[in-house]
Amino acid sequence: MSKQAERADPGCCAPLAVRPMAVEQAAEVAPMFKALGDPVRLRLMSMIASVPEMCVCDLTPAFELSGPTISHHLRVLREAGLVDSERRGTWVWYRVRPAAFRQLGALLALPASVPAGT
Amino acid sequence: MSKQAERADPGCCAPLAVRPMAVEQAAEVAPMFKALGDPVRLRLMSMIASVPEMCVCDLTPAFELSGPTISHHLRVLREAGLVDSERRGTWVWYRVRPAAFRQLGALLALPASVPAGT
């Protein structure tokens, strides 16, 4: 199993709010949150996640940034295990890794007993 | 309404996978993910979220880090709108901001039609 696939195991993570997180799990998950902690990467992520797959040739024109800068951000997302990529001819295509998304979402789940609060 | 409360509005955010995220929303949410993108802060967050509230005097001994370092990480979490703090006498107490958690969790939700994948 690749390192990315291990990171994306959706069964590994009890919600943050259930019990204190183990050191190893925190080290494994933090890079995924860190990858989302940038506005450009969040927008790239949402563009990719909104469709089955997306060509880098359609991502780059949406930003006022150079191709290499977009490629850098896409590499961060891929290395964090949040997207997969595949080269076909000239272009690279990206798609979301659903298990990674679900793992992060599960971590952020709060028990229903927690009031809405602020 | 405070800046933190605005950020924690749970009604503001369609899931990432529904439509591309607006520039303004990405700029607003990225700091919350960035705050979680550190193993120590993730562990602090899970310790705080596991109980109704927690004293900094119980958080610090759980880490092999100095008091000022722990305080720095707690400040990042607070400034990102993920926790609230309250000083009572000598100690500061922290509690999770449920709306902020729910906002991030909602962003990461995937449509049920998305296959489990890897």
TrEMBL record, chains A, B:
Give UniProt keywords alphabetically: DNA-binding, Transcription, Transcription regulation
Superkingdom classification of source: Bacteria
Pfam families linked = HTH_5
SUPFAM superfamilies (UniProt xref): Winged helix' DNA-binding domain
Q: Per its UniProt record, what Gene3D superfamilies does this chain match?
A: Winged helix-like DNA-binding domain superfamily/Winged helix DNA-binding domain (1.10.10.10)
Give every HTH arsR-type domain span.
21-116
PROSITE patterns recorded = HTH_ARSR_1, HTH_ARSR_2
* Classification via NCBIfam families: HTH_metalloreg
User: Which PANTHER family does this UniProt record tie to the protein?
Assistant: ARSENICAL RESISTANCE OPERON REPRESSOR, TRANSCRIPTIONAL REGULATOR, ARSR FAMILY
**What is the name of this protein?**
ArsR/SmtB family transcription factor
Q: Which organism is it from?
A: Plantactinospora siamensis
Taxonomic path = Bacteria, Bacillati, Actinomycetota, Actinomycetes, Micromonosporales
